[in-house]
Each structure stands twice: as C-alpha cells, then as structure tokens.
C-alpha cells in the first residue's frame, strides 16, 4: 500500500511528491522576487522623501534672498541654456556686493542640490562662477561643490540606490567594477582620470561607486581634484560670459589639449609603478 501511495500520479503524469518538491523550490524564488520589488519601492519612497526635504531647504534659501522685482524673480531659476545663465548672472551680480553671503549661500546650495540629484545645469553654474567671483575663489568653490554634491549622491546611492543599480545598471556596473579592481592600488588617480575625461558620465560614477566599494574618502578627493581642470576651462570662459551663446563655446581646441595632457599626467604614476614592478620581478 505504501508503495502504491508513493507512486500515485496526477492525470498529467507528475507524482504528488514531485509536485511538492517543485512547489518548495519555487517558494524561495518568489520570495526573493517579492523582496527585491519591495526593496525597490521602499528605496524610491525614501528617495522622494529626501528630495522633498532638499527642495524645502532650497525654498528656504530662496525665501531669504533679497527682495526682487517681478522681472528679476523670473530670472532666478536653474539655467538650462546660456541665455538663462546670462539672465541669472545679471541678477546675481546686481546683489552680490550688497548681499554677498546670501548670494554665495544660494550659489553653494543650488550647485550641491544639482550634483546630489544628478540634475543637469551645473556646467552653467561653473561658467557663472567665473563671472561672479575672482578666479581662485571660483575654482575652489566649484571643486568643493562638485566634491560635496557628488559625495552626497554617493551616500544617497549607498542608502537607497543599490536595488536600482542591480536592476537597471547591472552589466555596466559589473564592467566598471572589473576596471576598478584593476586600479584598486591607485584608485584616487583613476578617479581623477575619469573626472577629467568623458569616458564615463559623472552621474554613473556617483551612483555606482558605493555599490562597487569605492571608499568615500578616495571618491571625494578624487572628485575634488579631478574636476579642477574642466572647471578651469569653464570658469575662464565665465569671464567673457556675455560673449558666449552656447556652453560649447567655452571649450576650445587649446583647452581640450590641456585636458588631454592633464588626463595623461594623472595616470602616469600608475604606469610608471607597474613598469617598475615588472622590472623588479
């Protein structure tokens, strides 16, 4: 009787024992899919909440700005093109001397906000800094804002971005992880090189770095130093802001050659050390 019961089969030819085994195997898979979906939804909810808080801070900064006319108020917005940057520069330069702290704080907060949430427009703020401030201050300000904003984006990705990276950027993140592992001993040089060159988008570097275990300290200093050469070009163009019609005019063949040289210089120590190690071996 026992043998007959164990061999009982359904009309489709599958035994009850086989069905029970298949059901047990499927349960963990379904549970994993449910957990991943729930994690992605929770991450999205947290991201929206953090964005709302950051937007509230930006609103408070705007509220503490000097009293503006209706026409000036329309020009206070995140620049999308060179015309917007020129209009914003006109308003900020008017109030910069009288309300120096408020204008500087508004610039600082806006730049970091854009970098943190990977919102386009920071290139125009870099150009604008060359118009508003002396070159040394403008360069330090842009490098600091870029380093802090990218680091906040890094921490945001570490907190809530992993499920999204695993879901939408798996293949690209895996390839970059292999490259990072090759340069693990000279990671800061590699980050500087990537910031100078356009091989990887900045938003991709910011989002995936915590997932592939790039240390935050290395990430910050690599970004701070790496954005200096491109920022040098943008800030220098800002001194002639009102002669520009597009952001592309800020980049000349000379500036591209300078960036290429600096990119090579940033990676030279790695090449020299590798050759020295090969000779020693």
UniProtKB/TrEMBL annotation:
GO terms for biological process: autophagosome assembly. It catalyses: a 1,2-diacyl-sn-glycero-3-phosphoethanolamine(in) = a 1,2-diacyl-sn-glycero-3-phosphoethanolamine(out); a 1,2-diacyl-sn-glycero-3-phosphocholine(in) = a 1,2-diacyl-sn-glycero-3-phosphocholine(out); a 1,2-diacyl-sn-glycero-3-phospho-L-serine(in) = a 1,2-diacyl-sn-glycero-3-phospho-L-serine(out); cholesterol(in) = cholesterol(out). SUPFAM superfamilies: MFS general substrate transporter. It holds the Pfam family VTT_dom. Residues 7-23 have a biased composition (Basic and acidic residues). InterPro entries: MFS_trans_sf, TM41A/B, VTT_dom. Keywords: Membrane, Transmembrane, Transmembrane helix. The keyword Membrane applies. Phospholipid scramblase involved in lipid homeostasis and membrane dynamics processes. Has phospholipid scramblase activity toward cholesterol and phosphatidylserine, as well as phosphatidylethanolamine and phosphatidylcholine. Required for autophagosome formation: participates in early stages of autophagosome biogenesis at the endoplasmic reticulum (ER) membrane by reequilibrating the leaflets of the ER as lipids are extracted by ATG2 (ATG2A or ATG2B) to mediate autophagosome assembly. This is Transmembrane protein 41B. It comes from Silurus meridionalis.
